[in-house]
Design brief:
Layout: H1 2-29, H2 38-84, H3 94-133, H4 138-185, H5 187-192, H6 196-248, H7 254-295, E1 321-328, E2 338-345, E3 350-355, H8 361-368, E4 376-381, E5 384-385, H9 391-396, E6 398-401, H10 412-417, H11 425-434, H12 438-443, H13 461-475, E7 479-483, H14 491-505, E8 509-513, H15 517-522, E9 525-530, E10 533-538, H16 540-546, H17 549-555, H18 557-562
Parallel strand pairs: 3-8, 3-9, 6-7, 7-8
Antiparallel strand pairs: 1-2, 1-4, 4-5, 9-10
Helix pairs in contact: 1-2, 1-3, 1-7, 2-3, 3-4, 3-7, 4-6, 4-7, 6-7, 11-13, 13-14
Bound molecules: adenosine-5'-triphosphate.
Adenosine-5'-triphosphate binds at residues 89-90, 330, 332-333, 337, 355, 357-363.
Domain ABC transmembrane type-1: 1-283
Transmembrane segments: 6-26, 115-133, 139-158, 217-245
Domain ABC transporter: 321-556
């Protein structure tokens, strides 16, 4: 649309300049009175109005299409990041992603709304003018065609040089954003360890690097603008001199020469505009490259062959979970995080998963949540491999209470409702009651409408935990995955949470990453992971009698502290 409007604008401009040259010729050369030029003058006026309207329409259309493209891209990119889940964390910093999602997509604006249509117009408009001029004066047309490629070649060379520097500038900007976010999030740690001064110095170093690369890019942009202006001025002067000589020799009529002089700057204008947009466009391209990299990161799951009719016995209430020979290696890793894990969890029983740090507990949970698919083996519920169920459908059957629940900066009501977005206020309140959270919520001045702050900063760790349990109550899923908090809570919170969890566990198949001895010994079975392998599995009594790793963990002094 922008290109079509641009071409229409060019046709109107050619008509307008032809009218102008014929009026000037009639009035000044043929000495005709203005009264004889009423019709061409009115036409000229109409063309002026039409040209202004087309300019306005072109701008609006370019902005609108850029806006639509940006909204679509932002939604698409966000959906892709959601699908990538934890797989993304290993190769991207949050601040960098934030810069790409906000600033990066904004930078695409100039690229989409200005540069892309301008590249088409900078070929079509000069070509139109050339075709129009050729029958009028082939010498000027030829001169235009010789000078234009030289200007294009210069632009290309400068552009290639600038592009590398702009890529560097974009990387410096995203690095700076990532560092700012990291420092702001770690502000209390920096303060406590008296490292805020060192952090200031680092930020200032990174800012200076960004300033340095930006100045370099701006310098090149300024010089390239200057060279382009000079080259086009030179080309126009060359054609003007050639016209002047021929006018003196009377080898070209004044009207034609005047029209050519008016049209020549218009011939070069699209190229100059292209040069002017090029700097912004290169910035947009640098951002586009990172966006494209993100979009090309393969989503590590979502292979689904399921259709509802295929599995009429799809899981409902009772879930028996069976892991057979599960293995998983992270893309950037050479060592498997899980290897040959086989585990059966009977319906409505609790399995405690234990193991030292790095043994593969979270990886197992991520596989169960289908943030990624296992490299080998099978996870099945009631005999159906979960890889055959649509991901979203499978997640309907799972509730998660993580070790550090994430609360969004919105009301308590909305945060709990995340468990089931369609739930009524009464259902949310009932879930909060079951989670032992209603008492503290009722004491807050705004009750369920209290805004919790970023990550729940206005609530205590115990209160956050209870809201996460309320979410799980509201979801009421048959499979519950629970990662016990390791940080110690005050005794009252501890008791309340233990009671709420005990209620939540009833009538569900539960997998708990357990850190407390109390939880472990109450589980129906215990699975011990070490270095990604399932070392032993059985009831607490069986494992104690076996006198293996679990028995050593319980009896050993270190572990008594850990599980106290
Ligand atoms: N995104 C990742 N990319 C590469 N390797 C990873 C990634 N996440 C985890 N790992 C590796 O996989 C192994 C298992 O990690 P996992 O997080 O599952 O252990 P964990 O038992 O949950 O540890 P913790 O109790 O400390 O949370 C570790 O060696 C870890 O370094």
């Amino acid at each position: 649309m922008t290109v079509v409007l641009g071409l229409a604008w060019t046709v109107v401009m050619i008509v307008q300049l032809s009218l102008l040259s014929s009026i000037v010729n009639a009035v000044f050369m043929k000495r005709q009175g203005l009264s004889q030029q009423v019709f061409p003058l009115s036409l000229l006026l109409i063309m002026l109005v039409v040209r202004s309207a087309l300019t306005w329409l072109r701008e609006v259309s370019a902005q609108e299409s850029a806006l639509r493209a940006k909204v679509a891209l932002r939604n698409y990119l966000f959906a892709h990041l959601m699908a990538l889940g934890p797989a993304l964390r290993s190769n991207a910093r949050t601040g960098e992603l934030l810069a790409t999602l906000s600033d990066g997509i904004e930078r695409l604006d100039a690229y989409i709304s200005q540069y892309l249509p301008q590249t088409v117009l900078s070929v079509c408009i000069p070509l139109l003018i050339f075709i129009y001029l050729l029958p009028i004066d082939w010498i000027s047309a030829l001169l235009l065609m010789v000078t234009a490629p030289i200007i294009v070649l210069m632009m290309y060379m400068i552009g290639t040089y600038t592009e590398k520097r702009t890529q560097k500038q974009w990387r410096a900007l995203t690095h700076m954003s990532a560092h700012f976010l990291d420092s702001i999030q770690g502000l209390p740690t920096l303060k406590i360890f008296w490292h805020s001064e060192e952090a200031n110095k680092r930020i200032s170093r990174i800012s200076q690097r960004f300033e340095h690369t930006t100045m370099k890019v701006l310098r090149i942009a300024f010089i390239s603008g200057l060279v382009l202006e000079f080259m086009t001025a030179l080309a126009i002067a060359l054609i003007a001199v050639a016209l002047g000589i021929r006018l003196l020799n009377h080898s070209i009529p004044f009207a034609d020469a005047f029209l050519i002089l008016l049209l020549v700057p218009e011939f070069y204008r699209p190229l100059r505009d292209l040069g002017a947009h090029r700097h912004a466009a290169i910035e947009g391209k640098a951002a586009a490259q990172r966006i494209s990299e993100l979009l090309h990161t393969t989503v590590p799951t979502a292979k689904t062959t399921f259709t509802i009719t295929e599995h009429q016995n799809k899981p409902r209430e009772q879930l028996t979970l069976e892991l057979t020979n599960i293995s998983y290696t992270y893309p950037q890793s050479s060592r498997p995080a899980l290897h040959g894990v086989t585990l059966r969890m009977e319906a409505n029983t609790c399995t405690a998963l234990i193991g030292s740090s790095g043994s593969g507990k979270s990886t197992l949970v991520h596989l169960l949540l289908r943030f990624m698919d296992s490299d080998g083996g099978c996870i099945a519920i009631n005999g159906i491999p979960i890889s055959e169920l649509p991901v979203e459908m499978w997640r309907e059957y799972v509730a998660l209470v993580p070790q550090r629940p994430y609360l969004f900066d919105t009301t308590i009501m909305d945060n709990i409702r995340l468990g089931r977005p369609s739930a009524s206020a009464q259902e949310v309140m009932h879930a909060a009651e079951q989670a032992g959270a209603s008492e503290f919520i009722d004491q807050l001045p705004d009750g369920y409408n209290t805004i919790v702050g970023e990550r729940g900063s206005r609530l205590s760790a115990g209160q956050i935990q209870r809201l996460a349990i309320a979410r799980a109550f509201l979801k009421d899923a048959p499979l519950l995955i629970l990662d016990e908090p390791t940080s110690s809570l005050d005794p009252i919170s501890e008791v309340l949470i233990q009671q709420a969890i005990a209620r939540l566990m009833q009538q569900r198949t539960v997998l708990v990453i357990a850190h407390r001895y109390n939880t472990i010994k109450q589980a129906k079975q215990i699975a011990v992971l070490a270095h990604g392998e399932l070392m032993e599995c059985g009831t607490p009594q069986q494992l104690l009698a076996r006198n293996g790793q679990y028995a050593r963990l319980v009896q050993g002094n270190e572990t008594k502290e850990a599980y106290a």
